[in-house]
Amino acid sequence: MEFHLPEPIRNLKDFFYHLGIVTLGILMALGLEQIVEAHHRTKIGQSSMESFRRELRDNRERVTEILATLPKSRAQIEREIARVAALGDAASKTPVPIDYPDLHLLLMSSAAWDTAIATQALFYIPTEDAKHFSRAYGAFEVFMNEERTGVAAWQDLRRFGDDAGMLTASQRRDFIEQLHRYESYTYVVEMIGKGTLADCDRALGTSAPPAGGTS
C-alpha cells in the first residue's frame, strides 16, 4: 500500500481546490449523518404509533364490552325496583333476596403512551396524529374515572344488605331511589363510552360502528 502526501499548495487556485474537497467531504459526512438520524427518528415514530394502535384497539374492545352490558343492567335494575316497590310498606314474613345489578370494571392500558412521553418519542410523530392519539387516551382516562364513580355508587347500594324484606318502608324508598340513581349512572357511562369510541376511531383512522356493538 502506498501513501501519497498531499501535493504542495502552489497558488490560490490549489488552495481553493483542496478547501473545496475538504468542505465537500464534511458536507457529505454531515448529510449522511442527518439521513441516518432522520431514518432513526422515523422508525421510532412509526414504532410508537403502532404501539398506540395496538393498545387503543385493546382498550376499545374493553369499552365495547362494557357498553354491551348496560341494557341488561338497566333491565335488571327495573325489575328490582318493581319487585321492591311491590312490597309496599308492610313487613315481609319471608326473605326477599336483593338482586343487585352486576358490576363491570375493566382497566385500560396507557403504557405505550406513557412510554412515548417518557422517551420523548412524541417529537417524532406528526402533530395531527399526536393530537388524535392524545385525545383518545384522554377519553379513555375519563371513561375509567367514570367507572370508578360507578364502583363507589355500587358499594353505596350494597349498604342495604341482602334482604329487602328486612328493610323498613323508609329504607325501601331510599333503596329504590338509589337504584334509580345507579340506572342514571349507566346512561352517563353510555354517553361517555360513545364519545370515547369516537375519539378512539379517529385516532385509529376507522369509522365507528354503533356503540355497544362488536368492534
Describe this structure in words.
With 215 residues, this protein is an all-alpha fold. It has one domain. It has 4 helices and no strands. The protein is rod-shaped, with a radius of gyration of 32 Å.
Topology of this structure?
Blueprint: H1 12-86, H2 111-118, H3 127-157, H4 169-204
Helix pairs in contact: 1-2, 1-3, 1-4, 3-4
Task: Name its key features.
single chain, 215 residues, mainly alpha, 4 helices, disordered N terminus, disordered C terminus
H/E element sequence: HHHH
The end-to-end span amounts to 68 Å
As a percent range, the share of helical residues equals 55-70%
Rg (CA only): 32 Å
SS-based class: mainly alpha
Number of domains: 1
Largest sheet: none
Task: Enumerate how many helices there are, as a single number.
Answer: 4
Number of strands: 0
Beta-strand percent range: under 5%
Backbone shape: rod-shaped
Mean pLDDT: 83
Low-confidence stretches: 1-5, 207-215
Task: Offer a quick outline of the entry.
It is built from four helices and no strands. By secondary structure, it is mostly helical.
